[in-house]
Amino acid sequence: MKKIFTYENGIVSLMSLIFGVLFFDRLALNYLVPYVAKDLNLNNLQIGLLAAGLSLAWAFSSYFTTAWSESRNKNKITFIVAIFIFSICSFGSGLAIGFGTLLAARLIMGLAEGPVIPLAQVFVERESTPRRLGLNVGIVQAVGGALFGSILAPVILIQIAENMGWRTAFYIAGIPGLLIGVITVFYLRKSTTVSRGNKSHKGFNVKELWQYNNIKWGTLLACCVFGWWFATIPFITKYFTDVQGMDAGTMQKTMGLLGVAMLISSLFFPGISDKIGRKKALLIALSLGVFYPFAVYFLNGSGAHLPVMFVTYAMVGTIPLVAAIVPSEAVPNRLKAKAVGFVTAVAEIVGGVLVPAIAGGLSDAINESAFLWIGAALAVLSLFFLSKLEETKGKVVE
């Protein structure tokens, strides 16, 4: 029993919950967009810009706020304050009266959420035994991003929107973060959050980070993975309902099923990477992801539609690998937080800002399915960047 109630398991559990409320808040708009777009008269370009705006703020903050916090040994206070702010911002989304006010709420939310992910991932790595690193990071992503953000969120939020309105759904989404923020104040140890650098290592270290092979190629790989996800996730619910004719109940179940796929893949691929290596695990998942957009488009109405989407959506399970494990294993301890923040920031800008804006614009101008083909192209490109990575499992960088 003592092996279960260890501080390592406690940190993994707490970070999983924090990831959960963060992604619950961040992804809420994606599931509520059919209701919000109708009420606020939003087009595909505006929907893409909302996703891009949050990602841009997230990207800026994930690196610069994380680097500032790490350099000044302010990780714990930065982490806790950020949790409270992004939770409060969910209420702001519910108060929006138009595109401008909704965009402002999402921008502030992105600034607050930015440092939470890289700091949480570094906290988990510091408390993880080496043989469990991939599994622990996968658990955080799976329980947090998948269970809360992709399985529970669409079921709960769509149900609330149907019965009480989309504004109430946003209000309710903000409550759990406030409660978990209080728990974090008392549970998180100073030894977990203390900076590992010294006064000579202050600054942003961008040039130094870029000298590491797996930071250079891993950043480009992360851009493709993030882009693949953000090319589809902001538009997929609207595509299912408006183009493929799904009713709200079927769409809700479909998104829930994709959430289950994210849960399983986020556990499986980081976990199996502890056994077979990071590159082999990534190769399997990325290869499956190439076929996801084709499954969405060509198999609609067939019995294979949901099963094939379920399997090919597995590429989403590479996010904890490309955003946390690969960059953290590529650099020495003093640069780990900055490395994770840097890769996340660039991937958010390219994959989370530029890609959804382009995908939304092309979907308006050319065809409603244009965002799917952008995702397919990025999945293929990711395989090229993967070939440039060096295997880092079990290696220590001095």
What is this structure, in a nutshell?
By secondary structure, this protein is mainly α. It is built from 19 helices and no strands. Helix 3 runs antiparallel to helix 8 and helix 11 packs antiparallel against helix 17.
Task: Explain the overall architecture.
79% of the residues lie in helices and 0% in strands. With 398 residues, it is mainly alpha-helical. The protein has one domain (7-188, 205-387): MFS general substrate transporter like domains (Growth Hormone, Chain: A). The mean pLDDT is 87.
Topology:
Blueprint: H1 7-40, H2 44-71, H3 75-94, H4 99-113, H5 116-127, H6 133-164, H7 166-173, H8 175-187, H9 190-193, H10 206-210, H11 213-232, H12 236-243, H13 248-276, H14 278-289, H15 292-298, H16 305-312, H17 319-329, H18 336-365, H19 370-387
State the end-to-end CA separation. 36 Å
Cα-atom radius of gyration: 20 Å
CATH homolog superfamily: MFS general substrate transporter like domains
| Low-confidence region ranges | none
Can you count the beta strands?
0
Q: Determine the number of helices (DSSP H or I, runs of at least 4 residues).
A: 19
H/E element order: HHHHHHHHHHHHHHHHHHH
Envelope shape: globular
Number of individual domains: 1
CATH T-level fold name: Growth Hormone, Chain: A
Which sheet architecture does the biggest sheet show? none
On the 0 to 100 scale, the average pLDDT is 87
What is the percent of helical residues?
A: over 70%
Structural class: mainly alpha
What's the architecture, going by CATH? Answer: Up-down Bundle
